[in-house]
Amino acid sequence: MGCGASRVEPQPVVMPLTLYSVSDGPPSLAVRQCLKYLEVEYNLVNVDFGAGEHMTPDYAKKNPQKEIPVIDDEGFYLGESNAILQYLADKYPKDETFYPQDLQQRALVNHRLCFNLSTYYRNICEYAVAPIFFDYPKTPKGLRKLMIALENLNTYLQLTGTKYVATDNLTIADIQLATSTACLEVINFDLSDYKRIQQWFETYKEENPDLWEILEAGVGELVEFSKNPPDLSHMDHPIHPIRQKKPKKTEETAM
To answer: Which InterPro entries match (predicted)?
Structure first.
């Protein structure tokens, strides 16, 4: 090597992000759609919910809440799908509209994310999704809470007059709210009384086919589970009531 040659420093190897996900979990589906939109390469690790993999001490090191999803970005672990979407949109900015820098536009996006978590997804999940897996009854009160949440979103869309939930462009808030709305297919809910939601949801599907493909497949799994609820009687869940497996009828008990 000549005296004038300079040494080339080796470049650090950047490891792809890892997503710990469950294939039919709405929060996981939201993160996968976000990654698709941002064109981020990642490793997908499917967590076996039925086997309780998320309840293990090893998983708790990644997320002490033992909830799914979680991302691992070179040793940086992050749970909560809202926080993950915000992190990804900031780290991999594809455009100026997906998670706007404008103060008021971003505030609206953040509001819609909070609304989804506190009210919209919460009430849809409690009525349509949670009873599939756990011992939760569907009640008239639960249905009323779901309908109030729908009325709220419908009103927000009417007030803003925008094509999407916060602006005229797709944002991370649309991904969360569209994912929640898709869960209504589990109970075959008719959205015709909520015209603005219906219009916005159709726009989401038509203008974002790659995202809808992910969402449709995941919700399709939920629909199948709703027809044949899984047996989770072996799971020791600290929060959700577990539906106990019904004993098989014998000839004696059947008489």
So the answer is: Glutathione-S-Trfase_C-like, Glutathione-S-Trfase_C_sf, Glutathione_S-Trfase, Glutathione_S-Trfase_N, GST_C, Thioredoxin-like_sf
Find the domain containing 54 and state its range.
17-91
| Of residues 62 and 83, more confidently modeled | 83
Higher pLDDT, 56 or 34: 34
State the chain's mean pLDDT as an integer. Answer: 90
- Identify whether 171 is part of a domain: yes
CA triplet 191, 32, 156: central angle to 5 degrees? Answer: 35
Domains in the chain: how many in total? 2
Q: Residue 69, preceding bond cis, omega within 30 degrees?
A: yes
* pLDDT top residue among 70 and 135: 70
Sheet with 70-73, side-by-side order of all strands: 42-46, 17-21, 70-73, 76-79
Residue 175 has pLDDT above 90, yes or no: yes
Q: Could you count the other beta carbons within 10 Å of the beta carbon of residue 236? A: 7
| 98 lies in some domain | no
Residue 173, domain member (yes or no): yes
Structural domain ending residue among the three candidates 91, 119, 148? 91
Residue 159 maps to a domain: yes
Do 145 and 127 touch, CB atoms closer than 8 A? yes
| Tokens at 222, concatenated | 């939920």
- CATH number of 33's domain: 3.40.30.10
- Whole-angstrom Cα distance, residue 217 to residue 54? 22
Distance CA 90, CA 161 (A): 26
Q: Is 18 helix (H, G, I), strand (E, B) or coil?
A: strand
Strands 76-79 and 70-73, sheet pairing:
antiparallel
